[in-house]
Design a protein that fits this description.
Elements lengths: L1 H16 L14 H9 L9 H8 L20 H4 L9 H6 L12 H9 L3 H18 L9 H23 L6 E3 L5 H5 L1 H4 L6 E3 H9 L7
Antiparallel strand pairs: 1-2
Length: about 220
């Protein structure tokens, strides 16, 4: 089970990104250069083939795709694909907008992937049960839904438990703070950043702020 999860997670991240960019930043999936390179190498063109896509979905054979001809799963991006706003998609618009022809992925897809690709049903069931139990715990008012307030409360509880665990492990003299000598692992490597008041110790408050920090959303 663990082997499956480790292999699947990177694929999910790539799928969520929508594109895999080459080292030079130019050989994007769907570009003619990328597809031709695969064909010349004798490999099947697994990337987006705009010509095949157009041929398969161009019902009236006019060389363009209307919104109705575009597969339903991609129609939410029609306006983004239709760069000249003429109400139809040309080959060039499809090729330039290949990023908008990737399936929309969500973090919750991981649950479906666990069920579909597990190589150990007993292990998978155990992992899903852990997630299920946690989600039920989040639903504090037992209304069958998880709202933003319940999510915030659960996050604060997780942060508190994590800080408790770190302090218990590293604060050997139990003075309520972590000295440079006590710091280990990531705490030791990032000691200067965590010690925001530069007093030579990481207080519980400093640690809690660091643990609770939210990642900056990418543009």
């Amino acid at each position: 089970m663990r082997r499956t999860v480790v292999l699947v997670l990177p694929l999910l991240v790539l799928a969520a990104a929508g594109l895999v960019v080459g080292q030079d930043g130019k050989d994007r999936p769907g570009t003619e250069k990328a597809v031709q390179r695969e064909k010349q190498a004798g490999k099947p063109a697994l990337l987006f083939d705009v010509d095949t896509f157009l041929k398969e979905h161009d019902a009236d054979k006019d060389g363009h795709l209307s919104k109705d001809e575009l597969p339903a799963r991609f129609r939410h991006n029609f306006d983004k694909l239709d760069s000249n706003k003429d109400g139809k998609l040309s080959r060039e618009e499809l090729q330039q907008g290949v990023a908008h022809l990737q399936p929309r992925r969500r973090p919750s897809d991981l649950m479906f992937i666990l069920v579909e690709t597990s190589d150990c049903d007993e292990c998978c069931a155990e992992e899903l049960q852990t997630a299920y139990d946690f989600l039920r715990k989040l639903d504090a008012n037992k209304d069958g839904k998880i709202d933003a307030t319940e999510l915030k409360t659960a996050r604060e509880d997780l942060v508190r438990h994590r800080v408790d665990s770190i302090m218990k492990e590293l604060d050997r003299n139990q003075d309520g703070k972590i000295s440079r000598d006590e710091a280990r692992g990531q705490i030791g490597r990032h000691f200067a950043e965590l010690d925001t008041n530069q007093d030579g110790f990481i207080s519980r408050d400093e640690l809690q702020k660091a643990v609770a920090a939210r990642p900056t959303a990418p543009k």
